[in-house]
Write a structure and sequence with these properties.
Keywords: Acyltransferase, Transferase. By secondary structure, this protein is α/β, with parallel strands linked by helices. The protein contains 20 helices and 20 strands.
Length: 494
């Protein structure tokens, strides 16, 4: 398959909601066979732990997304960051990669090859036509981690409401607004609650106790949140990513719109019957008595079995990330064109630099290369300029119906002997293009160097390449050695 880089941050000020969504997408991408890395500023301790638990590599995030795609060998750049500009698609496309972009209404909106707005009711509100490709709208595209889906199964099988309500409060991984203390104070004053557990960073605990008293349980943010939510009778949450996780699991919940970009999702969740609400954080703080009564009413209804759990689980089924990844595959396949389209080679130009670096840095390509390390942008640009100027090197980009699908390079070893190497675009794998790409490159080369002897150096364990060159008329020369590589000689020069 291909490599995907997820561009998002998880800072102390910005929280970890974007990262949680990105990890969910990573789960689905790897399940589909892709490799994945994360590029961004990761400050939150919980974010660091989530990435470590998921086994995701964190890489540098250059400002230019063209460089990011090329250095990481990514066929897909998935952006979940409001601060990335509207030129993102142009920069990613310069490397030949596909831009996938998460947005929340107008927040983070930009043209992309695949657009995802997983806010509830997004499909009803629509989206202005800005030339984007595939547009996925609505809560059915909300990414859910594998752990969330597992918690959904556990909750359905094991949960029973106790005689006293167990309430869990979570206002985001960083709780930058101090909302946890405000909400904990409401629960301490509300009737019918047996135990209150608050998830908040340790540096906020004194402030939480100052508002709510000492009769609450305080826990630091951790991936164990899902286990706690699964056992809780009621969860009071910020109206961000966690809200949709709770709906998927099937936990009765009350939402608070802690920041402005949560307001639209908050209002839609209430309108669709997925959740109940306490209001915005400002409203809660302005009228704590009314908010306390709302909490008590939710607990009383819980005892009567009146919840919105069924509606939430129907709308958030846990497979949103799978649908996003499937949209990538469809978009990449459309780029390759029809099987009957002509395959032709042309000389590489300076404009192909980032495209060829991206193909070279693809993880699967590096595994069978002489050097398995990633090549940096700076080192590549100098090398590439010299290659284009070197008369003893021939470099071709092969296209199908105008779309680059591979490259073939010939390096002069002696006056009449050249070594051929081929790189297939990662997104072109599985389309039967290896042989046509090699043939197109050979045809272009042979027009300039008729009768030249051509050899290929291939690792013995690289079965696809061994098979490709054998079918193209190359035969192993047992008398020649090239380190760990077999040397195959073309038997019928054209």
């Amino acid at each position: 398959m291909t490599h995907v880089v997820l561009r998002c941050d998880a800072t102390l000020a910005g929280g970890i909601g974007h990262l949680v969504r990105a990890v969910s997408v990573a789960d689905a991408a790897r399940e589909a066979g892709h490799t994945v890395s994360v590029a961004g500023e990761i400050e939150s301790p919980l974010a660091v732990q989530l990435l470590a638990d998921a086994g995701l590599e964190v890489v540098d995030a250059p400002e230019d997304l063209e460089i990011l795609a090329a250095e990481q060998g990514a066929s897909v750049v998935h952006v979940d960051d409001y601060t990335i500009g509207t030129d993102a698609r142009d920069r990613v496309r310069a490397s030949g990669a596909l831009l996938s972009s998460m947005e929340d209404g107008t927040f983070g909106r930009r043209p992309a090859d695949v657009v995802v707005d997983s806010t509830i009711r997004a499909e009803k509100l629509g989206r202005p036509d800005d030339g984007s490709g595939t547009v996925l709208l609505g809560i059915s595209y909300a990414p859910m981690r594998a752990q969330v889906r597992a918690a959904r199964e556990e909750r359905a099988a094991n949960h029973e409401v106790g005689s006293e309500a167990r309430v869990l409060i979570v206002m985001g991984g960083t709780d930058a607004t101090g909302a946890a203390g405000t909400v904990a104070a409401l629960c301490a004053a509300a009737e019918g609650i047996g135990k209150v557990t608050v998830i908040s960073p340790e540096q906020n605990w004194d402030a939480v106790r100052a508002e709510a008293g000492d009769g609450i349980e305080l826990l630091a943010p951790s991936p164990a949140f899902l286990d706690l939510a699964c056992r809780a009778d009621l969860v009071i949450s910020a109206a961000g990513t966690t809200a949709w996780e709770l709906a998927c699991i099937g936990v009765p919940n009350l939402l608070v719109a802690v920041v402005e970009n949560q307001r639209a999702g908050y209002e839609a969740a209430l309108a669709e019957g997925i959740s109940r609400g306490l209001g915005t954080l400002e409203e809660v703080r302005a009228d704590p008595r009314a908010a306390t009564e709302t909490v008590a009413k939710a607990v009383a209804d819980l005892r009567q079995g009146r919840t919105s759990v069924t509606v939430g689980q129907e709308k958030v089924d846990g497979h949103g990330a799978d649908r996003i990844v499937a949209a990538w595959s469809e978009a990449l396949s459309r780029r390759i064109g029809e099987d009957s389209a002509p395959v032709t080679a042309r000389p590489a130009t300076a404009e192909d630099s980032s495209l060829l670096l991206r193909w070279r840095n693809d993880p699967q390509t590096r595994e069978v290369s002489r050097s398995t390390e990633r090549v940096s942008w700076d080192s590549h640009t100098g090398w590439y300029r010299r290659v284009l100027e070197d008369p003893r090197r021939e470099l071709y980009v092969v296209e199908r119906d105008g779309t680059p699908v591979g490259t073939v390079r010939f390096d002069a070893l002696e006056d009449t002997e050249w070594e051929v190497s081929i790189t297939l675009a990662p997104e072109s794998r599985g389309h039967g293009l290896s042989r046509p790409v090699l043939a197109a490159g050979e045809a272009a080369f042979d027009q300039r160097h008729p009768g030249a002897l051509v050899v290929a150096s291939v690792l013995p364990g690289n079965v696809p390449s061994q098979r490709l060159f054998a079918r193209a008329g190359y035969v192993l020369d047992p008398e020649r050695e090239d380190g760990d590589f077999d040397v195959l000689v073309r038997t019928q020069p054209r």
